Amino acid sequence: MTRLVRWTALAAASALLAAGCSGGSSDDDKSGLSWGRCKATADGPAPSSEWQCATVQVPLDWSKPDGETIGLGLIRAKARGDDRLGSLLFNFGGPGASGVSMMPSYAPTVSSLRERYDLVSWDPRGVGASEGVRCRGDKEIQAAEAVDVTPDTPTEEKAYFKDAADFGKGCQKDAGKLMAHVSTADSARDMDRIREVLGDDRMNYFGISYGTELGGTYAHLFPKKVGRVTLDAVVDPSADTVGHAQNQARGFQRALNGYLRSTGQDPEDGTRKIADLLQRIDTRPLPTGAPGRELTQTLAVTGIILPLYSKDSWPTLTSALKAAEAGDGSELLVLADRYNERDPSGRYGTTTHSQRVISCLDDRQRPTVAETKKLLPRFEKISPVFGRFLGWDTAGWCHDWPVPGQHDTPEVSAPGAAPVLVVGNTGDPATPYEGALRMAGELGKGVGVLLTWRGEGHGAYGSGSDCVDSAVDAYLLDGSVPKNGKVCS
Fold this sequence. Notes:
Blueprint: E1 7-8, H1 10-13, E2 20-21, E3 36-39, E4 51-59, E5 69-77, E6 86-91, E7 93-94, H2 99-106, E8 117-122, H3 138-144, H4 154-175, H5 184-198, E9 203-208, H6 210-221, E10 226-232, H7 241-262, H8 267-283, E11 286-287, E12 294-295, H9 297-305, H10 314-325, H11 330-339, H12 351-362, H13 369-382, H14 387-396, E13 420-427, H15 434-443, E14 448-456, H16 466-478, E15 486-488
Parallel strand pairs: 6-8, 6-9, 9-10, 10-13, 13-14, 14-15
Antiparallel strand pairs: 1-7, 2-3, 3-4, 4-5, 5-8, 11-12
């Protein structure tokens, strides 16, 4: 079972480069780390020689700081200018996104910041080069695509929840004792260790999507260590499991409405047409031309979601929906495969695996089947297209999970911290704008500084707004804090 919506910077994910540490130091600095050339992986070629990789050791269990350790993979490119400010640490979301893979492809977006900062990212624990978790094999993943994630019969319900439980067992088998130590709070403590080994007195940080929750958690745990921190595409820290799912149903329906208006359609009529198409596909999956693969309802919804992350992808959605209406599911399948990190050879990425072990350790709320069924009408009212999928997900995602969750909502209050720039996009589908408002408020008076962009897509920085980019650059490069409530149109 694949979660239908991830808090990931998918614009960066579309151009992944993979990297690992090849060993051998090519740079002698004060960090104490053995920085070397990054190597290629099965997912892609090595980045250019300007990128260096290393491994930092951190405690497996932060309550036992002198106990067993694990290694976290790091990547960096040094600042180009002479007036260096230190390191700027990036997290690209997920949870489960690989910073080691994404940082080189995202670097052109933040090239102005590299004049004064070393660009640094890492694979959080349980991800990629940092004890990455893989919960099932490629053949099992493809087989699970046939599971109906909006079950209509007792038989489908049984299959849905059995698949969820089996996934958790696979994660436990692969991760072992790491399974109980991959929380957001664990990663926030890892961030502070990274800050220390990089030699920075304060944490300069750029968090995107889930990376905003991680940044807020860091600010709460280490308020006196907060330097210049920017949070873009902001997760609502006040929302629990059900609240997040409803927020995302609302956000993706807004994006779908915007897309439909751009094509000259009435949003209500266009939504009904797509919902009817999905209902037909649920009854009879569409042929795709791919041997042994049909477009199921779940894959169709996944294929619709991906292009809503960016307005530039809306024409692709138009073509895919037109083909599906004509009985051809191939274009939506391509989009779904891209979202699910499936390559042409049938290999799948593991972002979703890491995401699940992290989010299910974080989230304590476990709605029952009965509770979920009561919620479904509300979800369907919010979004006739996405509501049922996200509603059922609240019960299935962490069903029968091997380890208990830690909290209902994360704590992000950071009294005494330096100003944190919170950037919200009114058209963000995956992390709706309300999340930025609430994050700025919960960080605390004088800490959360809200910058609003009236735009479309997931995230604001680097998305075409000179107003946003210049405000963020001025803050990170010069320490110029914009007026709280500044709006970029």
